Amino acid sequence: MTTQLVWFKRDLRAHDNAALMNAARLGPVLCLYIIEPSYWCNSDSSQRQFSFLRECLRDLYLHLQALNAKLYLVTGEVVDVLERLHHLQPLAALHSHMETGNVLTFERDKAVARWCAKHQIHWHEYQQQGVVRRLASRDSWSRRWEEFMTTSQCFVDQISALELPWPIESWPDWHAWNRPSDQPPQRQTGGRTVALATLRDFLDERCATYRGGISSPLSAPSACSRISPYLSWGCLSMREVVQATAEKLSMLPPDSRASKGLQGFLSRLHWHCHFIQKLESEPEIEWRNMHRGYDGLREPDWNEANFKALIEARTGWPLVDACVVMLRETGWLNFRMRAMLVSVAAYPLWLHWKPFGDWLATQFVDYEPGIHWSQMQMQSGTTGINTTRVYNPIKQAQDHDPHGRFVRRWLPVLRKVPDSWLFEPWKMPPDVQAHCGVIIGKDWPLPPVELESATRNAKNVLHARRAQPEVKSEKSAIVERHGSRLRPQTKARKAVAAQDVKQGSFEF
Ligand SMILES: Cc1cc2nc3c(=O)[nH]c(=O)nc-3n(C[C@H](O)[C@H](O)[C@H](O)COP(=O)(O)OP(=O)(O)OC[C@H]3O[C@@H](n4cnc5c(N)ncnc54)[C@H](O)[C@@H]3O)c2cc1C
């Protein structure tokens, strides 16, 4: 008997799964998820993601069972598993979605392609979202995104299922890989069932607070959709989310708060693919500057003490430390707070984006390499095409947590600090410190650098590099490769866009 092998990757759903649907049409199917030790030992993975994955797989198992199929979990490197499987049960074809992952999965996919070619096994790779493989030009990208999102979703109702030709394996022990324990108590739960409930709840209720609610870390946890981990792990397909949103939008009065919220949400679904496309087109941005003119800028100055202070929530800047604690406890932060953390790392603390990005990746349950590395570079000023965005953590606290509720929630030690000192506790006079029981230097750290001067120096160094003729001249090639073409191309708009590029304020 020949086998259609469905290799589940970051597409942990039976619904709208082109790999599953097409394999099932061709013959008996074996459904497999491969747990790769090399992936889980890499610097950007963590136990919180591994636990989330397990929940996703449990749910997928039940959904496949309802279709008469069984999901098998195998631990090993992919080519080794394929080799063993093919030896015991010849494969007719391999089916999976295209993946825009980290360098490890990129190299692994190339090895799989070589293995398939050697054994003359056809590898059917299906488009998973709006990301286009071997994209020749960005000009047609938006049109192709729209086309993909408006095509029909894939359904499968009948699967002729095959069994794994060796005994069922148990879930691997995380600690056998010598990786740190990491179980945030308030992380989102994995799996399509929760994903669908989260999406429904957002579309029916919470979207009304999306506009205006997504920037403050206080309101964001409920105002944002919270579907990011489900998109990253593929419990939901991007197409079904876009279509469900469009359907809901068509039922709402255009000026309603809910409609405005969903319009903003829909544009972020575009961004999702837009950012991943950058990594798809240029995998190197995971480890080197998108604009090579910024090479050598921060690398020589690595400051381990600053890095440790940041990741251990000891910078002394309350909003920064509160965000790190929230991330540690939940595995999620809203966009603005993520951007602020990177800005603090990149400017006053002058840290290179790669090591900090690796650490942040382990903290995000929704880690999506394409979005993550593009954003890390954008917020650190190394893309060469974006405005320098520097977030002052004290101003951000005043704007988005004016009464200090967020800071006090995540940093109990500061609960008794009066409002007037809360965002700059190091300025508290000794008698106030004694009164509220927070002695600076003992109960609360002094910031590692003086915020204003360190930020100013960092911006000056970056802008001096940006002003160099060879750095300036590279910019248009990067815009050509990665820049969004979403703006309407009227003559006036073109002139504005050209000006934006000149000033370095091109949106993406
Ligand atoms: C430094 C940095 C790193 C990031 N890393 C990731 C990551 O690893 N994975 C990830 O999913 N998002 C990442 N983001 C983008 C964004 O912060 C999250 O997508 C968002 O906070 C997820 O919450 P949500 O699903 O409630 O978002 P919503 O606001 O409800 O947005 C819906 C969806 O749109 C997409 N989206 C939203 N904002 C953006 C954006 N700015 N760029 C691209 N797509 C977006 C996401 O898929 C998100 O799930 C990062 C942002 C920054 C600044």
TrEMBL record:
<keyword id="KW-0456">Lyase</keyword>
<feature type="compositionally biased region" description="Basic residues">
    <location>
        <begin position="484"/>
        <end position="494"/>
    </location>
</feature>
<protein>
    <submittedName>
        <fullName>Deoxyribodipyrimidine photolyase</fullName>
    </submittedName>
</protein>
<dbReference type="InterPro" id="IPR036155">
    <property type="entry name" value="Crypto/Photolyase_N_sf"/>
</dbReference>
<dbReference type="GO" id="GO:0003677">
    <property type="term" value="F:DNA binding"/>
</dbReference>
<dbReference type="InterPro" id="IPR005101">
    <property type="entry name" value="Cryptochr/Photolyase_FAD-bd"/>
</dbReference>
<dbReference type="GO" id="GO:0003904">
    <property type="term" value="F:deoxyribodipyrimidine photo-lyase activity"/>
</dbReference>
<dbReference type="InterPro" id="IPR036134">
    <property type="entry name" value="Crypto/Photolyase_FAD-like_sf"/>
</dbReference>
<dbReference type="InterPro" id="IPR006050">
    <property type="entry name" value="DNA_photolyase_N"/>
</dbReference>
<keyword id="KW-0285">Flavoprotein</keyword>
<feature type="binding site">
    <location>
        <position position="265"/>
    </location>
    <ligand>
        <name>FAD</name>
    </ligand>
</feature>
<feature type="domain" description="Photolyase/cryptochrome alpha/beta">
    <location>
        <begin position="2"/>
        <end position="131"/>
    </location>
</feature>
<dbReference type="InterPro" id="IPR014729">
    <property type="entry name" value="Rossmann-like_a/b/a_fold"/>
</dbReference>
<dbReference type="InterPro" id="IPR002081">
    <property type="entry name" value="Cryptochrome/DNA_photolyase_1"/>
</dbReference>
<feature type="compositionally biased region" description="Basic and acidic residues">
    <location>
        <begin position="469"/>
        <end position="483"/>
    </location>
</feature>
<dbReference type="GO" id="GO:0009416">
    <property type="term" value="P:response to light stimulus"/>
</dbReference>
<dbReference type="Pfam" id="PF03441">
    <property type="entry name" value="FAD_binding_7"/>
</dbReference>
<dbReference type="GO" id="GO:0071949">
    <property type="term" value="F:FAD binding"/>
</dbReference>
<dbReference type="Pfam" id="PF00875">
    <property type="entry name" value="DNA_photolyase"/>
</dbReference>
<keyword id="KW-0274">FAD</keyword>
<feature type="region of interest" description="Disordered">
    <location>
        <begin position="469"/>
        <end position="508"/>
    </location>
</feature>
<feature type="binding site">
    <location>
        <position position="210"/>
    </location>
    <ligand>
        <name>FAD</name>
    </ligand>
</feature>
